[in-house]
């Protein structure tokens, strides 16, 4: 794999932005690393970080480079600060950045496929929210999305007194979140009702996670909808040992090219 620490200017944010990118590299002699390449344009996973992290975290806490290498999968890991992947009420337009500008720039910088069937998103916690928001909002551009211990009920989380001030800076009037374009329940229902080609959805959460009840509620709701939906749970907390294990499950689940 090639590992790129990429810094670039974002017109959407008006500041320099950062992302880590790993790209498939076919090698016959590299010790301890299996490799695979799918043609000239790589299938791509946009892998999103959580609230307290940045674009470096997946490389620092997991073996994502090793896991992706044997699959021939490119991985793009952008930094979005504490934005909840949203055009913030008081802050930067991170939703416009992550959903529009970033994929366009990444595909112009690197040999990444623009085909829907070879584009995916995944993330943990806040990043799980961002990944599902991305694929549910843009089913025409993504074939699959995965949430690991995700914030799936943003309206409930925003009502937490300890988080309300922070969430108000991001979303504005949090009483209007339910049923909005920031509400995953609303986006899932809207996509199901549209009867269009929908992305595959994967959701997992540890049973000891503080977000477990929210994830069960979202799971039960998704099971009532016309979606290609997979849910997994097992013992686990909101921590990296669990996420390192489950990102491997996500990669096995992705609809990657067969050759």
TrEMBL record:
It holds the Pfam family Esterase. It comes from the Bacteria. SUPFAM superfamilies: alpha/beta-Hydrolases (SSF53474). This is Esterase family protein. InterPro entries: AB_hydrolase_fold, Esterase-like, Mycobacterial_A85_antigen.
């Amino acid at each position: 794999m090639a590992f790129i620490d990429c810094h670039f200017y974002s017109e959407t944010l008006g500041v320099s932005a950062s992302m880590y990118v790993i790209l498939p590299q076919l090698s016959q002699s590299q010790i301890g690393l299996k490799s695979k390449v799918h043609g000239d344009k790589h299938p791509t996973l946009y892998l999103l970080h959580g609230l307290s992290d940045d674009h470096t975290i997946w490389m620092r806490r997991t073996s994502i480079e090793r896991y992706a290498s044997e699959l021939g999968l490119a991985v793009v890991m952008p930094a979005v600060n504490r934005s909840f992947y949203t055009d913030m009420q008081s802050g930067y337009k991170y939703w416009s950045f992550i959903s529009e500008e970033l994929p366009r720039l990444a595909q112009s910088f690197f040999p990444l496929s623009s085909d829907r069937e070879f584009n995916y998103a995944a993330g943990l916690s806040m990043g799980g929210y961002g990944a599902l928001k991305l694929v549910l909002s843009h089913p025409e551009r993504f074939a699959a999305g995965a949430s690991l211990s995700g914030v799936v009920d943003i309206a409930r989380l925003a009502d937490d007194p300890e988080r309300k001030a922070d969430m108000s800076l991001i979303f504005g009037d949090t009483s209007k979140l339910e049923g909005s374009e920031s509400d995953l329940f609303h986006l899932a229902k809207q996509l199901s009702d549209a009867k269009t080609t929908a992305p595959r959805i994967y959701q997992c959460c540890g049973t000891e996670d503080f977000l477990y009840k929210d994830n069960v509620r979202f799971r039960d709701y998704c099971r009532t909808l016309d979606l290609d939906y997979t849910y997994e749970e097992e013992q686990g907390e909101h921590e990296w040992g669990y996420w390192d294990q489950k990102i491997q499950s996500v990669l096995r689940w992705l609809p990657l090219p067969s050759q």
